[in-house]
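#data-curation
PF: Archiving a pair of folding outputs for the training set. Convention for this channel: one message per protein, sequence first, structure tokens after, nothing in between. First:
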Amino acid sequence: MRREKVFRILSIVVMLSIFWFSHQDGRESARQSTYVKKQVNKAIGKGVRFNIRKNAHFFIYMALGMSLLLSREKTGKREILEVVGFVILYAISDEYHQSFIPGRGASFKDVCIDTLGGISGVLVVKAMFYTKNIDFYKKSIVK
């Protein structure tokens, strides 16, 4: 199976995960956040202060940005703009979806966090390709 097809499937799985998390009502979402925070505090130590939900937004959209870019044959400027544009539209649709869920609401701040996560994912992929190309270039010079 080609790399692009695998990452298209992964992109769909990530989008379905985002939809599933967004579809949970406010109580269930808060319960899950509390559980994750307790687990992190057990692993790292008590007193760690961070916002589970905002981190979850950032990192799941980072995964989306990475998988979307890796699902493309090329990773040039046009593809990057298309991926970032899609991430922004998906983040907006996600917040709109949440506005209909009891105990949840739409947040412009979350759209911004989601977008930054998606852009970070794109940057990680580009950095991986860049360092891989540098390594390849160095090896070809040594020969």
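PF: Second:
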Amino acid sequence: MGRVGGVGMGKQWKRWGWLGLLASVLMTGCDDAPSANRHEDTCAEPRTLRVEVMSSDGAYIQGASVTATNLESNVSITGVTDDRGVTTAINETLAPSPIRVVATAGSHVTRAERVEWTCDECHCTPVPATVTLQLQD
């Protein structure tokens, strides 16, 4: 028996079969399962404190070691400044307690600065958001 005007069942099934498969894949995004196409979790990335380290004459210092210590738990994070004298290694994992931030470069040390945190249900934000530390001669 021959076909009468149109697409044979094999080709028609392939066409609709692929469309059905595509529709079922697209519909899986409607459940609560993880998906790469969902909006990013805004709570995932920790907030950071920007720390700038300068010499006594105002030059930014590359390679300075910056340490922030939680004043209650005594837990600390240390970062190293980049070629612009900046590190963002200090983050909200030290929150919500206040932290003490100090930098060293060679035998030079900065005065310690205190940073507080303002927290909501998602993040803790450092106050102030940027600290500039000056090495003492």
